[in-house]
Amino acid sequence: MDLYIYYRVDAASAAELGARVTAMQSRLCASHRVAATLRRRPGEQDGRQTWMEVYPAIPDGFEAALAQAVGESGLAALTDGPRHTEIFVEFQACA
């Protein structure tokens, strides 16, 4: 199961948000043995950027650990609106 989380951030807060997210992801990678990436949609719209955290092949219980880490990291103060979570499962891999 892969976890995708996207949200908007004011461009003026982007550097601080990036530092907080990458620090949080580093802690989660070490403590839960997950891979994590942080992506940003190119460009801005109305001074806002769209960012996405990607966590492929998450273990059971990871979502609760992530929610706790997000709270501890203070990300809500830097995002513009809610974090949207999408879950995908593998349908078919290349042979």
From TrEMBL:
<protein>
    <recommendedName>
        <fullName>DUF4936 domain-containing protein</fullName>
    </recommendedName>
</protein>
<dbReference type="InterPro" id="IPR032556">
    <property type="entry name" value="DUF4936"/>
</dbReference>
<dbReference type="Pfam" id="PF16290">
    <property type="entry name" value="DUF4936"/>
</dbReference>
